[in-house]
């Protein structure tokens, strides 16, 4: 909880008591590796702060003539806020899944508790806005990367973003995230290792 509390401590004019109150609304949960936190078709009730570990977001792609497969489109890791945010804010069922990559410790806040914090103080609104802004920036950067970067550049950006975790993410999820096959990813990794 110390990492989350330290974020609140950076807010000018926020008393220790108010910071403690906000943080008290978050509940600690430890999820095992490969735990499905949110299944498509259900509504996201939580905003998460990742204390340790990695979470991935993926869709199940099905096609009548091909085997179904999972396509990873996002990761969140230590010191990041995350959620199936579109489902969270619209209160509608999610069209994708959220799963841990490794054992992951989160502090999560329920939608209703977050609304109470928004109503209670400007700090609640501030933290909500900051969380939403971070999620938006990550989403936009991902979309731009898919449009303008090569697969190798997308891989290098992922390594740069998650230097402490890249070795913990299975290659099939990394390949899916950057939009290539695991075999193509192996070739990229070999080429990078030779340079």
Automatic annotation (TrEMBL):
Q: Which InterPro entries match?
A: cNMP-bd_dom, cNMP-bd_dom_sf, RmlC-like_jellyroll
Q: Which Gene3D superfamilies match?
A: Jelly Rolls
Q: In this protein, which residues make up the domain named Cyclic nucleotide-binding?
A: 10-117
Q: Which Pfam families does the record match to this protein?
A: cNMP_binding
> Per the UniProt record, which residue ranges are transmembrane?
none
Q: What SUPFAM superfamilies would the database entry show?
A: cAMP-binding domain-like
Name-wise, this protein is: Crp/Fnr family transcriptional regulator
Species per Swiss-Prot/TrEMBL record:
Chryseobacterium caseinilyticum
């Amino acid at each position: 909880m110390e990492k989350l509390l330290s974020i609140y401590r950076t807010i000018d004019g926020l008393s220790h008591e108010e910071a403690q109150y906000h943080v008290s609304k978050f509940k600690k949960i430890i999820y095992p590796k490969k735990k499905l936190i949110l299944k498509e078709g259900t509504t996201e009730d939580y905003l998460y702060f990742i204390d340790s570990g990695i979470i991935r977001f993926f869709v199940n792609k099905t096609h009548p003539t091909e085997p179904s497969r999972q396509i990873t489109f996002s990761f969140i890791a230590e010191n990041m806020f995350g959620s199936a945010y579109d489902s969270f804010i619209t209160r509608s069922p999610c069209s994708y899944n959220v799963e841990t990559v490794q054992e992951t410790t989160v502090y999560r806040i329920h939608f209703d508790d977050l609304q109470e914090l928004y109503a209670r103080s400007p700090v609640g609104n501030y933290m909500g806005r900051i969380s939403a802004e971070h999620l938006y920036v990550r989403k936009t950067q991902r979309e731009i990367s898919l449009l303008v970067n090569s697969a190798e550049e997308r891989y290098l950006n992922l390594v740069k973003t998650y230097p402490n975790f890249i070795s913990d993410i299975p290659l099939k999820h990394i390949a899916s995230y950057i939009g290539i096959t695991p075999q193509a990813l192996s070739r990229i990794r070999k080429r990078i290792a030779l340079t």
